[in-house]
């Protein structure tokens, strides 16, 4: 079976294939356009959506080095075939499925979520013998509320703040989360105001057939009566008088998060799978070996071992623990 290792990104040494390395490589597979998955490679393979997002976020020089592989197509590499399956995380996010000439199968998830989002492709889960998966929310206490409940919380926050004659400000990461938040609030009567970066990324979503609501550019001096969506990084510039701020994040399940973020409310909406969804995902892939990465990787690998899977975390030293 294929044996992946972690070297600042995932490497399949048998095939010389890199997945989401941070450092520049001659050739790499890039799962999606979030910054921690994109390096300045000499050549990379990604979905057309991811390459378009990289063009906006990272510039033409890097995007021009991208080779597009659409969902459903096959890339023939040296000794393997690669296919992308939707990961449901953000627009264009892909899980990379490898089948070697010897018939071995391998799946690298990148970031993923299994619930249907409002702005990302629905996840499709293939089976594989070896699975490398992200486990950001891999502890049992990470159970997100139903999506409908979260949407109600977003609207209740907006109603309450507008009712107090103030401006509701929703903090959401510019790629993925912001578009889903905008889809949640698009039916509201108020004008929607977004940070420039979100507006630019919305155009990419539109170009791939995901209709985004009409928005106005963020203007701190004229926010009255609007619903504002902006990335958390802009919070320090926001004049806090006459507005209230909600952080929209999977880390918002814990009320104490609002003190950590310095906001008035936290709303738990995530682009990642929660703990029960991670477990269901593994069952669907039906792997013989699982390697976990990111977040609670060690804890989740231990959980999987208790369930009878051969499972290890990629970057922590629990392989010895497994042998003992
Ligand atoms: Zn991501």
Task: Looking at this protein, list some descriptive labels.
6-stranded parallel beta sheet; Metallo-beta-lactamase, Chain A; alpha/beta; 9 helices; Rossmann fold; single chain; 324 residues; 25% strand; binds zinc ion; disordered C terminus
Describe the model.
With 324 residues, the protein is an alpha/beta fold. The protein folds into two domains: 5-141 and 272-323, Metallo-beta-lactamase, Chain A, CATH 3.60.15; 147-267, Rossmann fold. The protein has helices spanning 48-58, 60-63, 147-163, 177-185, 196-207, 257-261, 275-285, 297-306, 319-323, and strands spanning 5-6, 10-12, 17-19, 28-29, 44-46, 66-68, 74-77, 80-86, 94-100, 105-108, 130-135, 167-171, 191-194, 216-217, 226-230, 243-248, 265-267, 289-295, 310-313. The strands form four sheets. The chain has a seven-stranded mixed β-sheet, with helices on one face. Helix 1 packs antiparallel against helix 5. It is globular and about 65 Å long. The two termini are 22 Å apart. The model is unreliable at 320-324 (pLDDT under 50). It binds zinc ion. Zinc ion binds next to loops.
Short description:
26% of the residues lie in helices and 25% in strands. Helix 1 runs antiparallel to helix 5.
What is the overall pLDDT average? 95
The small molecules bound here are: zinc ion
Element string (H = helix, E = strand): EEEEEHHEEEEEEHEHEHEEEHEHEHEH
CATH topology of the largest domain: Metallo-beta-lactamase, Chain A
**What topology, given as strand order, has the largest sheet?**
7-8-9-10-11-18-19
Number of domains: 2
Number of strands: 19
The assigned CATH architecture of the largest domain is 4-Layer Sandwich
